[in-house]
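R.M. (postdoc): so does anyone remember the format we settled on? I'll just put the structure tokens first.
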């Protein structure tokens, strides 16, 4: 795979030319996304070094969201941040400029700006190691829904350029806090437990009644997020560094016999990734990859989707029992 590009324009052309050959393989598709983002980072650093020199200290540029979990689709927006080692005004100014350049460069090669501004260009997501630790503790002390959401977003972080130990250090801050504040787990649970009803009492799948996606089901909200959120919470509880949902499930199954039933949910999530792959060929916009037209499914596929949707709620009930009992250490 080519990794030497002289401009964002040439990188964008390469991305558009080759990305579709990976659309049916989630692992290879995400490896391709990683390579595109690393190439964008090289270009951003090249531009910055000409202007103000090399980075003043070690740092990590990390991705979050589906990128952090290696679960990106064909079309993906931006979710990334920076943590740097040196707590100084010079480092702050340098990495703020790098964050701006990274966000601009990713947008130019086809990764749209994040509507929620979860990007390195936002000071909230670009800080020194010391300031990041303070922010994580502030979020954990805070009782707001937004703070818990930010913690969930950060927990899926994965270093893509630079020093991975910086990310591990930050996640250990969360683990250390949890040792003395178990109630934080219930706050996480409260944040994720509102799951949209997707299967009716007579077994009918609830679809979008009107609009652009009439007759479709939003797989992201009704299926992906229930699985991702539930497994993330178990990963936080058990102090797992893994970010991929499938790897988290595998690790949990290895840790404790009481988690063995998660293997069923792992199979469901793997099926979800395959269903989403089938949506790529017709996707023209970011949201298109999340909507599945129920009318185009076979009877077997409809049964499978119903089981996956119902099991999402069962998984949340399983996680709630664990949080209530506090039975796994």
């Amino acid at each position: 795979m080519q990794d030497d590009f002289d401009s964002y324009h040439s990188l964008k052309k390469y991305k558009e030319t080759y990305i579709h050959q990976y659309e049916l393989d989630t692992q290879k598709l995400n490896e391709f996304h990683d390579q595109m983002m690393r190439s964008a980072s090289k270009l951003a650093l090249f531009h910055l070094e000409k202007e103000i020199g090399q980075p003043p200290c070690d740092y990590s540029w990390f991705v979050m969201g589906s990128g952090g979990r290696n679960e990106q689709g064909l079309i993906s927006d931006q979710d990334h941040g920076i943590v740097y080692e040196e707590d100084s005004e010079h480092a702050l100014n340098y990495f703020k400029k790098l964050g701006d350049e990274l966000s601009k460069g990713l947008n130019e090669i086809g990764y749209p700006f994040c509507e929620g501004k979860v990007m390195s260009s936002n000071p909230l997501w670009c800080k020194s190691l010391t300031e990041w630790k303070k922010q994580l503790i502030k979020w954990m002390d805070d009782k707001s829904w937004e703070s818990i959401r930010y913690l969930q977003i950060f927990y899926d972080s994965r270093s893509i350029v630079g020093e991975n130990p910086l990310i591990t250090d930050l996640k250990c801050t969360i683990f250390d806090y949890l040792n003395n504040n178990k109630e934080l787990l219930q706050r996480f649970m409260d944040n994720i437990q509102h799951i949209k009803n997707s299967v009716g009492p007579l077994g009918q799948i609830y679809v979008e009644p009107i609009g652009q996606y009439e007759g479709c089901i939003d797989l992201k909200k009704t299926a992906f997020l229930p699985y991702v959120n539930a497994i993330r919470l178990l990963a936080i509880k058990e102090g797992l560094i893994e970010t991929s949902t499938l790897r988290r499930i595998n690790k949990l199954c290895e840790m404790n016999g009481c988690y063995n039933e998660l293997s069923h949910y792992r199979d469901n999530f793997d099926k979800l990734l395959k269903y989403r792959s089938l949506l790529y060929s017709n996707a023209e916009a970011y949201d298109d990859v999340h909507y599945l037209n129920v009318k185009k499914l076979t009877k077997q596929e409809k049964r499978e989707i119903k089981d996956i949707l119902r099991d999402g709620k069962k998984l949340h009930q399983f996680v709630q029992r664990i949080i209530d009992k506090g039975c796994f250490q």
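R.M.: ...and that's the designed sequence above, right after the tokens. Also worth knowing: The mean pLDDT is 92. The first strand starts at residue 59 and ends at 63.
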